[in-house]
Amino acid sequence: MDEIDIEHVAERSLSDPVLIEGLPGVGHIGKLVAEHLVEEFDSELVRRVYAAEFPPQVTVDDAGVTDLTAAAFHAIETPDDAADLLVLTGDHQASTNAGHYTLTSAFLDVADSFDVDHAYALGGVPTGELVEEYTVLGAVTDADLKPPLEAADVEFRSDEPAGGIVGVSGLLLGLGERRGLDATCLMGETSGYLVDPKSAKAVLDVLQEVLGFEVDVGSLEDRAEEMEEVVGKIQEMQSQQQQQVLPDDELRYIG
Amino acid sequence: MDEIDIEHVAERSLSDPVLIEGLPGVGHIGKLVAEHLVEEFDSELVRRVYAAEFPPQVTVDDAGVTDLTAAAFHAIETPDDAADLLVLTGDHQASTNAGHYTLTSAFLDVADSFDVDHAYALGGVPTGELVEEYTVLGAVTDADLKPPLEAADVEFRSDEPAGGIVGVSGLLLGLGERRGLDATCLMGETSGYLVDPKSAKAVLDVLQEVLGFEVDVGSLEDRAEEMEEVVGKIQEMQSQQQQQVLPDDELRYIG
Amino acid sequence: MDEIDIEHVAERSLSDPVLIEGLPGVGHIGKLVAEHLVEEFDSELVRRVYAAEFPPQVTVDDAGVTDLTAAAFHAIETPDDAADLLVLTGDHQASTNAGHYTLTSAFLDVADSFDVDHAYALGGVPTGELVEEYTVLGAVTDADLKPPLEAADVEFRSDEPAGGIVGVSGLLLGLGERRGLDATCLMGETSGYLVDPKSAKAVLDVLQEVLGFEVDVGSLEDRAEEMEEVVGKIQEMQSQQQQQVLPDDELRYIG
Amino acid sequence: MDEIDIEHVAERSLSDPVLIEGLPGVGHIGKLVAEHLVEEFDSELVRRVYAAEFPPQVTVDDAGVTDLTAAAFHAIETPDDAADLLVLTGDHQASTNAGHYTLTSAFLDVADSFDVDHAYALGGVPTGELVEEYTVLGAVTDADLKPPLEAADVEFRSDEPAGGIVGVSGLLLGLGERRGLDATCLMGETSGYLVDPKSAKAVLDVLQEVLGFEVDVGSLEDRAEEMEEVVGKIQEMQSQQQQQVLPDDELRYIG
Fold it and tell me: What's CA C216's distance to the chain center, in Å?
């Protein structure tokens, strides 16, 4: 196999499609949103991208049949007048610096072949503490892209995220701009400790408003509720542990 | 040397051969089976594959003569009406992600040159505890391949192994399928802590039944017995240690 | 993207320019000097060098607009009769051995395209203790280059720095010489623990004397003063901590 | 720079030369022998090999002049009727598996260009304890090469060294054989903890006998004596420490 191998699974023409990227990352927010779109809409798998940068691995499905590790592009013709979507999902990023560049270039080649002229890279920003209000941060390749995002309550903060945007999401903007592609990164604030469907819903809300499509968010809300129950139980356990520990501490330091 | 260097040691034509891969891995099960076939049958070394991904190393034989690290293909013309075998053995996998892809592609090139149309990748599945019943798990590139395997008591479990199949074995299925090759992975259940000839014998039994050849398994059974003695001694030592430790623990916690 | 991608941001012809390299390193001395020149002079960004060896990353500016990680070349036409300057700055070195060679070769290609015939690689030498007198050490590709540097108080010490000169600075000399380029490394002595604007000023003083330009060093002196206040506070805190610790130690060990 | 860059420093024709390789390794034995030959004989630097696999580094000589990291080939016309020598020395091996293959291939290219038909790779075998008798172990690409070595007291032990021969030395045999070159590895037994000039002298003695040249070994014997003094002092310090520790131990365990 070459360094990159793009499989044409199906041909489909889309009108003015935008690329939505949701690979694994902080809080799995991009991945949750991208997979939600693929599941809720009438989507069709159009391309698989195999890469020597991915782990040397096949997954085994429920019938015992294997699939070579790959990133996948699904085409979605949205109802209404909204832009069509080309959605990029997968289980892996690259394993080296150079590999991220090779892989993102391949993804941009696929986007080019569908005449994509705007890419949305989705991700999360870790805050280090439990998030109360689910703000969505933005970054763009061109300041002209900001007004419609600001109208959808996306925040732009000076020099944030401080460490820049890394991985495929960052390079979709960086290498995309080098090719003349408009690109936007939408980052949901999240604690950084857990998969965060609630932050994913906040990012999805922005996408719906900006791109003008509507999608059922019920299953994402269900997952958010399940996650909140998990968080609640963890908090309960922690506070019990602290109570058990306290008397001991008192004995040691005060008694 | 190029990234890959394939040495033609001998030419031999095989009728409808299947590829049997047994490189090092969990419990060395694949390696045990593949080397057993090479030893028991009238086999001939036909190809060596050198790779810059292998350790920069020569081994020294019993006469002080060196051999460059390589993977080896042996040709076996089975008696009876069974399919001929092309058996891949070696001491190393690749050392990087990309290297696994390069190496497996080279192995598939060799298989292609012998008109192989079905590959069997052999390995082990770690269970984390001593195995009583030696089940063989299967995974295939195509669901149509399952019936004869199921008839030989190979089990197909939904989404197992959970972490997928990694290394050359995984890619023989993944990259093999991309080339139109049928491929099957047979994985013997094993504790994962020790070389496991008994699990290897279970995998070999499946191969014999599915491919229709017969081979003496005496030496494999001998090794299995030796291994059981080793395991027995380890268990004995552990139980003695626990008895020695117990009184101490009692003194510390109860006394 | 290829391994290296050189963006022509502007064309500008320079007369007998010298290359000044200031990438991150010990005490950030080279970086401080190079960025100071870019800020104080009327400089123009002429080239950006993108590299797959750099982190897969975009930075976000104060308006929320992204920039792909790159090294930058600025052109400076110095007033007076001094040589024009081509200044190389950036936030990263390469991430692998081979990458340093690829990256430095690309930098030398850019220098060649501007007819640079002398390169100055700027850096720091860690002394392990606070520096009182800010000596500048030198190393050259050709002994004939030493007299004017020695006249500017640059010290040449036998076999120093002991570990050689590593990274892009070292290769600018090593690979530069292979191309027939004269190259000089100027290394300010510094503790190695902190960003050191005072050591940077010492290096800048040498550059001014050797190349015959004059530049306002006010902002560098301001940063040096700020840094000295920081160091003063750290020293004060350390001496307080030692005093607080002492009585305790006495109680524990003597009382 | 390309992956490999071979500099032709001088042209020199040698009659039936053998390659002697002495890069850094266990006990620095190969390096000591190779550098001794370069210093004692009337040698001439003929080739430098630069490689992107080497550290990105220049060394600084006693005049403050830099040299790019490289491996060096020196040509030696031996007096007497002995074979001429092409001696490979340097400060580094490669930094990756694949790099060792690339580098060794380049070294073999240089050897080919001098019509070398026999290579001697020199190294050490760690024994883990102080060595009393300095045996030299051998390994060869062809059993026919053994008789003259055995006549010079080189020992060939079945399957030793157990871990094979790694690095450039190993590949000189492995890749050399692939090109039809005879190659011999001579390994001095050494503790593995220290630079070992005495073991180096044992290897040099074999070389002299096998190749038929004579060289002054005075400086190597001087270094061996210095090293023995160092070892003596270390042993003295260790025995003193043990005496100081003993009373304490007695108090703790027996008292």
Answer: 18
Q: Which CATH architecture has domain D4-246?
A: 3-Layer(aba) Sandwich (3.40)
CB contact under 8 A, D65 and C157: no
Q: How many B-D residue pairs are in contact by the CB < 8 A criterion?
A: 91
Task: Sort D134 into a burial class: Cβ within 10 Å, 0-12 / 13-18 / 19+.
Answer: middle
* Strands laid side by side in the A66-68 sheet: A66-68, A57-60, B165-166
Other C-beta atoms lying within 10 Å of the C-beta of residue B147 = 8
Q: Would strands D57-60 and C165-166 be described as parallel, antiparallel, or unpaired? A: antiparallel
Q: Name residue A8's amino acid.
A: H
Distances (CA, A) of B116 to B84, B128, B176, C1, D97: 10, 35, 11, 37, 31
Q: Any residues with CB less than 8 A from the CB of C134 and at least 6 apart, and which?
A: C188, C189, C198, C199, C201, C202
Q: With a cut of 80, say whether residue B60 has pLDDT above it.
A: yes
Q: For the residues of C133-178, what is the DSSP string, one character each?
A: S--EEEEESSGGGHHHHHHTT-B--TT-STT-EEHHHHHHHHHHHH
- Looking only at the bridges linking them, the beta strands covering B66-68 and D165-166 are unpaired
**Closest Cα in chain C, distance from residue D84 (Å):** 30
User: Are C135 and C124 in contact, with CB atoms under 8 Å apart?
Assistant: no
Optimal mutation site among B53, B65, B92, interface D, most CBs of chain D within 10 A: B65
pLDDT averaged per 10 residues, chain D (length 255) = 94 94 95 97 97 96 96 93 94 94 98 97 93 94 97 95 94 97 97 93 97 94 90 83 56 37
Measured between CA atoms, the residue of chain D closest to residue C95 is: D56
| DSSP H/E element including B76 | strand B71-76
Residue tagged 């030989």 (tokens)? B152
Closest residue to D56, CB basis, from C97, C139, C178: C97
Tokens for A132? Answer: 């109360």
Spell out the domain ranges in chain B. Answer: 4-246
Cα gap A185→A177, rounded to integer Å = 12
CA separation for the pair A220, A29 (Å, rounded): 11
Q: Is D125 exposed, middle or buried (0-12, 13-18, 19+ CB in 10 A)?
A: buried
- Sign of the alpha-carbon torsion through D108, D111, D117, D121: negative
What phi and psi, each to the nearest 5 degrees, are found at residue C17?
Answer: -70, 150
Contacts of C251 (CB under 8 A, 6+ apart): none
The answer to whether the peptide bond before residue B161 is cis (omega within 30 degrees of 0) is: yes
Q: What is the ipTM of this complex?
A: 0.89
- Count of CB contacts below 8 A, C vs D? 89
Q: Select from D105, D120, D12, D115 the least CA-distant residue to D51.
A: D105
